[in-house]
Amino acid sequence: MTARLPVLFLGHGSPMNAIDDNAWSQAWARLGAELPRPRAVLMISAHWETMGASAVSAAEHPETIHDFGGFPQALFDVRYDAPGAPALALRVAELLAPDRVVQHPTRGLDHGAWGVLRPMYPHADVPVVQLSLDRGRSDQWHYDAGARLAALRDEGVLIVGSGDIVHNLRAVNFRTGEIPDWAPRFNDQAKALIAAGDHGPLIDWRSLGPDAEASINSAEHYLPLLYVLGAQQPGEPVSFFTDDLFAAISMTSVRIG
């Protein structure tokens, strides 16, 4: 019988963390070494949004997507040639039925995926499937989808959400890195709710007030967290790591189980 795998939310920050040797990339590398080796990874990244249906990457050999600009050529030269897992893509659709899930035949891995997986699994030898964020769905739906996908944890699949609890690029001063007061306040509030297993306010995050509104902003970096929380089983331990803030971006990561 396969042991139940943990579920992870990784604060991914800048794409440069994929190639920089820093405390965050080192923590992801340790995580990859410490975790039981998964049969595959199901990745929910901030950087694949759809409307009207969820989609999964069903390619046998997903390409490396460089969905950013203004970074050094070394980052554009990165290829993360992990295999796909079409059978897992079909399993995801089965678990999310009757809601529609499109099998995307050519979708590759965006930087929210390979940016954290490259340090974790540097040999690119763990198959990866990406699930999109259907922005036509409610926050509750995304959380419930995580609960429906939780069965994969007992099937050798590592569920990973990749985003940032606090992510508001409009509020970032990249020159000074100054941290707005609301960013650590909300990050700490979110961590306290996660640690307490009090998911209701995190789903209905707008009820948490202006700190949440500023921190979550356009929400694509926050929604992957809801899948991870939804996949939590009763009584599972929760821990935090890479728990730093830069300006209005939180690197805080969460391990459940």
Please provide a written account of the structure.
With 257 residues, this protein is of the alpha/beta class. It has a single domain (7-176, 184-245, 251-256), classed as LigB-like (Protocatechuate 4,5-dioxygenase, Chain B). The chain is 32% helix and 19% strand. The chain contains nine helices and ten strands. A six-stranded mixed β-sheet has the order 5-2-6-1-10-7, with helices on both faces. Strands 3-4 form a two-stranded parallel sheet. Strand 8 and strand 9 form a beta hairpin. Helix 6 (182-196) packs across helix 8 (210-216). The longest helix is centred in the last third of the chain and has 15 residues, at 182-196. The protein is globular and about 45 Å long. The mean pLDDT is 96.
In short:
This protein has 257 residues and is of the alpha/beta class. It has nine helices and ten strands. The protein has helices at 23-34, 73-76, 86-96, 111-120, 139-149, 182-196, 200-203, 210-216, 223-230, and strands at 7-11, 40-50, 54-57, 101-104, 128-134, 157-163, 238-241, 245-246, 249-250, 253-256.
Encode the helix/strand succession as letters.
EHEEHHEHEHEHHHHEEEE
By CATH's scheme, which homologous superfamily applies?
Answer: LigB-like
Number of domains: 1
The CATH architecture would be 3-Layer(aba) Sandwich
Q: Could you estimate the helical fraction of the residues in percent?
A: 25-40%
Total number of strands = 10
Shape: globular
Give me the secondary-structure category.
alpha/beta
